[in-house]
Design goal:
The complex is a heterotrimer of chains A (304), B (270) and C (423).
Chain A lengths: L1 H13 L5 H33 L1 E4 L2 E4 L3 H6 L3 H32 L7 H13 L2 H11 L5 H8 L13 H28 L4 H9 L4 H29 L3 H7 L10 H11 L4 H26 L3
Helix pairs in contact in A: 2-13, 4-8, 4-10, 5-8, 6-11, 8-10, 8-11, 10-13, 12-13
Chain B lengths: L1 H31 L4 H5 L9 H11 L2 H32 L3 H11 L6 H14 L6 H9 L2 H11 L4 H9 L4 H12 L1 H17 L2 H6 L8 H8 L7 H27 L8
Helix pairs in contact in B: 1-14, 3-14, 4-7, 4-8, 4-11, 11-14, 13-14
Chain C lengths: L1 H25 L2 E6 L2 H18 L4 E6 L2 H13 L9 E5 H10 L19 H6 L1 E2 L2 E2 L2 E4 L3 E6 H6 L12 H15 L4 E4 L4 H9 L17 H15 L3 E4 L2 H9 L5 E5 L3 H4 L9 E4 L19 E5 L6 H10 L5 H11 L26 H10 L10 H16 L4 H15 L2
Parallel strand pairs in C: 1-2, 1-3, 8-9
Antiparallel strand pairs in C: 3-12, 4-5, 6-12, 7-10, 7-11
The chains are: A mainly alpha (304), B mainly alpha (270), C alpha/beta (423).
């Protein structure tokens, strides 16, 4: 029953064809957007690439070839920050997206009471200002903070943990912070995507005796696949460029254990002796890595 | 049936605990806004009596209303413009897709992947040469068309029933007509989600307004809040009040639009 | 007739000429970027009032911009060579001054020959605002280090503030241990992973992270090693506690968990809002390192100075404004002190009556003249171009040392990190 419905959805898509005239009209739809992106992203990117081939300080720059790129291979802080963001990526993106998907699945149930309240509550973190949430997070995870008190009262811990003081606990904190803030954000896209699914499919599946888990894996995920791909690329990209969380929750500490690449770029541009060329070179390496990852994800996820 | 009941109960328990974790910092913030700075730092969890005082300090030291209006104006312009441009493009990329457009889409996606800090200086030079410093257009233009939104609309269009297009063509609607009269109403849920996200991002945007809007009269809320944290002595009560006020518009827009992207508008498409 | 017309024409010309002249003067506006409405902005506005009497044609437009935001805008605009929107005067953190001047050599106006008398400012501040023998900043905000203590807590252990004045760190640790024992309270708190307190201690010895040639001076720096040793001992004996961030740091002494703090004089602004503790606080100088030659009881932390931008339409006018106010008006400092506590490094202000007023919160202590006195004794050091890099590297090293790494290994790593970043 489920399968036949999905087949039906697929079949009318495949049967749809467009002719040359429509292809031409299509270009008029995409050109304004594309032109704006070319002018305000690609043009500056090319300028930034040229910048990455320049050495020197402040506005006193001169051509240096690939020197910046060679240098970053020896840069301990660059390597450390790269390592950190990959840890965030591997731990955080799968956790957050699964959680968002599960929540969207639950909240899409029309028989659920207080849906609108739960939805709003889960969305609130990404609208909440980082200033206030950083203060609360740090005080909750302080040595004599709420989290340690609870864990010790429950006898899970014998000694309080210095969360912000250890490299791995601090990284864990960043992962928790990221998940806390962005799960609701991703959930919105899933909820919006789910509105395009006929509730009759779920009813039919329920009558057929499909479990909640089956409904998630057999109906929700396949239909949401295009959106899941979108959020995966977006989160990969966002995590590798993470700045706000590491800056506000841990300031990159302890001993650079949570320093992110964007934070390092920021320091090179605005805190340290400004070397925009070198900062641009680092950004380009990140750019290439993110691009490769995204295209791998596209290859796997974007078949029609 | 017993199993079903336990399942339902655990579902509510799960949602309630997640909601609590999500709402706690917000609640704390509003409580903090009613307290004196010293009490905020002492970790009070009870509403205080200093709200009016904090508000007076805030409006005396900053131009709160102008910053709210500026932020609102820029965010609203950005949201409307980018929804139009990006959804047009996303629709075009999916509905009329061919190899050329798929390729172009992939190229555009690359634009998402460069840290903003790097294109900031070249972009600033470009806008300086175009004479767009300190203008609303200068604020909005870099985010009017974003690969992310185009991609969102392209992916969502994949669920747009193509028979609607065929039927509309038979009815004599032009291609542009189909977009405005059919696509936009049917895809209301995606538009609502995109509007919330775009508005929020524009509202919270920090780095770009910081450099493009250097005139004091163009100051936005995030910059006002940044100033409140910059003193040698930070007044946390006032700070939390400002932060609380600044998230209200996003919350209001979320509440106003959430029915659209979460309750579905079935019937129109089916 | 023709002659008359010519005369009339000439007169009109002259009139037009005069009117444009006076028009230009009326229009002169000096724009200033600075932060903190209770402190810098307030001081700048009062300076504008004073200058209004001297040169009524000039308006001063004070705009509030946070320090990080000033730095971001300066770096972006200067490297893009678009200086049109930059102000005439900026307030600059002393920590960043040399870096900015040497990274953007033509961006800041040289004040050496502007008529400003730099001898009237505390020595250490002038040193921090001088690059290659040229003066680039008018010293303002006093970052002289103070040791602020709760005398009611000291009393429980049988001490007064005098027992903590002009002492060495060895004595401080002895007495601090006793206070800790008797009252359970530490005397100091510091933010983990940040080097502020350590740098206060280091500067008091007259040393810095760079030697006189501007080379990184970390591995061989005996003073730095002694500073780290004392810091560790303070932590071990629980005279010093580490907290996670600025809010917790402020809260640690506001709530009374910690019985004192050591920082730049501006920290007073965060001490006085706690009404219940009025009368309990005193300030004194910081301990010195007995074992280091030339070490003093004085240091500084986090001051700032006024700079004139070279891109200003009227750099001479901006310099004159600073000269007549911040560098020449005792009256200005007398006006701003009482309501803002804005302490200057302008030495003549120290003799004024206002500076000798007893402060009720500090039990009638004449704290302002004390601090001005401290400021005049702070050792001169050069923060150096790579100041931020070095401070970050040393902070990292200290965190590693606290986590149990060998001191020499950690310092070696810091030294090579800084060397790597200087290219």
């Amino acid at each position: 029953m489920i399968h036949t419905t999905i087949e039906k959805i697929k079949s009318y898509k495949n049967g749809f064809s467009i002719n040359t005239k429509h292809k031409l009209i299509g270009w008029f739809f995409v050109i304004p957007g594309a032109l704006l992106i070319f002018s305000f992203y690609f043009y500056p990117i090319i300028r930034a690439f040229i910048l990455s081939l320049q050495g020197g300080v402040g506005n006193n720059l001169r051509f240096a070839g690939l020197f910046n790129y060679k240098r970053l291979l020896q840069d301990g802080l660059f390597k450390q920050s790269m390592f950190n963001v990959f840890i965030y990526l591997i731990l955080q993106v799968p956790i957050m997206l699964s959680l968002a998907l599960i929540l969207a699945g639950i909240l899409n149930d029309r028989t659920l009471k207080f849906r609108s309240f739960f939805r709003t509550a889960i969305f609130v973190p990404c609208a909440t200002s980082l200033v206030s949430y950083a203060i609360i997070f740090r005080s909750m995870f302080a040595l004599d903070g709420f989290i340690n008190t609870i864990l010790m009262n429950l006898n899970i811990l014998a000694e309080p943990i210095n969360w912000l003081g250890g490299p791995w606990t601090a990284r864990l904190l960043i992962v928790i912070g990221l998940t806390w803030r962005w799960t609701g954000y991703n959930m919105i896209f899933y909820l919006a995507g789910l509105q395009n699914i006929d509730p009759a499919i779920y009813e039919a599946a329920k009558i057929d005796g499909a479990s909640a888990f089956d409904r998630l894996t057999k109906i929700t995920i396949p239909i949401l696949k295009p959106i899941i791909l979108l959020t995966t690329i977006m989160s990969t990209n966002g995590t590798l460029q993470i700045f706000d969380e590491t800056q506000n929750l841990t300031s990159g500490g302890p001993a650079n254990a949570t320093l992110s690449v964007s934070q390092y770029i920021y320091r090179l541009s605005f805190e340290y002796v400004p070397r925009f060329g070198y900062a641009a070179a680092i950004a380009f390496v990140v750019f290439i890595i993110v691009a490769v990852l995204s295209f791998m994800q596209l290859k796997v996820g974007d078949e029609r | 049936m017993r199993k079903e009941k336990i399942f339902r109960a655990s579902k509510y328990l799960f949602l309630i605990s997640i909601s609590f974790l999500s709402l706690f910092p917000l609640l704390w913030m509003f409580i903090a806004a009613t307290n004196k700075s010293v009490d905020v730092l002492a970790g009070t969890l009870f509403p205080g009596t200093n709200l009016v005082e904090n508000f007076k300090t805030l409006t005396a030291n900053t131009n709160l209303y102008r910053a709210m209006w500026n932020s609102f104006k820029y965010a609203a312009v950005t949201t409307l413009a980018s929804l139009l441009v990006s959804s047009l493009a996303g629709y075009g990329f999916e509905i009329y897709h061919d190899r050329g457009k798929d390729f172009l889409m992939n190229i555009l996606l690359l634009s998402m992947m460069v840290p903003f800090a790097v294109i900031m200086v070249p972009l600033y030079m470009l806008f300086g040469n175009l004479g767009l410093l300190n203008t609303t257009a200068g604020f909005a233009l870099p985010t009017v068309s974003t690969a992310f939104l185009i991609f969102l609309f392209r992916q969502s269009s994949r669920n747009f029933p193509h028979e609607v297009i065929e039927a509309s063509r038979l009815d004599g609607l032009t291609e542009v007509g189909i977009f405005f009269r059919m696509f936009i109403p049917i895809m209301r849920s995606t538009y609502a989600a995109a509007a919330v996200i775009t508005f929020m991002n524009a509202w919270n945007n920090y780095l770009w307004p910081l450099i493009i809007m250097q005139k004091e009269s163009a100051r936005t809320m995030p910059l006002l809040i940044s100033n409140l944290t910059a003193g040698y002595t930070i007044d946390y009560g006032v700070l939390m009040l400002a932060v609380g006020i600044s998230i209200l518009p996003t919350l209001i827009i979320f509440l106003a639009l959430q029915k659209n992207f979460a309750e579905g508008v079935t019937g129109s498409a089916k | 007739m023709k002659k008359k017309l010519t005369v009339l024409f000439l007169m009109l010309m002259m009139l037009a000429g005069f009117s444009t002249l006076s028009f230009a003067q009326e229009n002169a506006t000096i724009t200033v970027w600075c932060w903190d409405p209770n402190f810098n902005i307030y001081a700048m506005e009062k300076a504008a009032d004073i200058y209004k009497d001297i040169n009524p044609n000039v308006t001063v437009d004070v705009q509030e911009v946070a320090w990080e935001d000033i730095q971001t805008r300066l770096s972006t605009s200067l490297s893009a060579n678009q200086t049109k929107d930059l102000p005439d005067i900026v307030l600059m953190q002393d920590n960043a001054l040399i870096k900015n001047v040497s990274s953007f050599p033509d961006a800041f106006y040289d004040l050496s020959d502007s008529g400003i008398n730099f001898d009237k400012f505390a020595d250490f501040k002038v040193e921090l605002t001088t690059v290659d023998g040229r003066n680039y900043g008018v010293p303002f905000d006093n970052g002289a280090a103070i040791n602020a203590m709760r005398v009611d807590v000291l009393e429980e252990a049988g001490y007064t503030i005098d027992d903590f004045t002009d002492i060495t760190w060895k004595e401080f640790i002895e007495k601090g241990s006793k206070v800790r024992e008797k009252t359970g309270k530490p005397l100091l708190s510091a933010i983990a992973g940040e080097s502020d307190l350590l740098m206060v201690m280091l500067q008091s010895t007259g040393n810095w992270l760079f030697d006189s040639n501007g080379e990184p001076y970390i591995t061989e720096n005996e003073a730095l090693k002694e500073v780290i040793r004392v810091y560790q001992e303070l932590l071990k004996k629980k005279i010093l506690v580490e907290v996670n961030d600025w809010d917790q740091y402020i809260s640690s002494f506001q709530s009374g968990t910690v019985a004192g703090t050591m920082n730049g004089a501006w920290i007073i602004g965060s001490i006085v809002p706690v009404e219940e503790q009025a009368g309990d606080w005193r300030i004194t100088n910081i301990p010195r390192f007995g074992s280091i030659e030339g070490a003093t009881n004085y240091s500084s932390q986090g001051g700032s100075s006024w700079m004139v931008m070279a891109s200003s339409k009227n750099p001479e006018l901006a310099a004159d404004f600073l000269n007549q106010t911040f560098a020449g008006s005792k009256e200005l400092y007398e006006t701003i002190l009482p309501s803002s506590g804005a302490l200057a490094t302008y030495l003549p202000a120290g003799d004024s009556e206002v500076y000798n007023e007893p402060h009720p919160y500090f039990g009638g202590q004449k704290i302002y003249s004390d601090i001005t006195d401290f400021a005049s004794r702070v050792p001169r050091v050069k923060y150096g171009i790579y100041n931020y890099e070095a401070r970050d590297a040393v902070s990292t090293a200290i965190t590693q040392i606290m986590q149990g790494q060998n001191i020499m290994d950690a310092l070696n790593e810091a030294q090579s990190t800084v060397e790597f970043q200087m290219w």
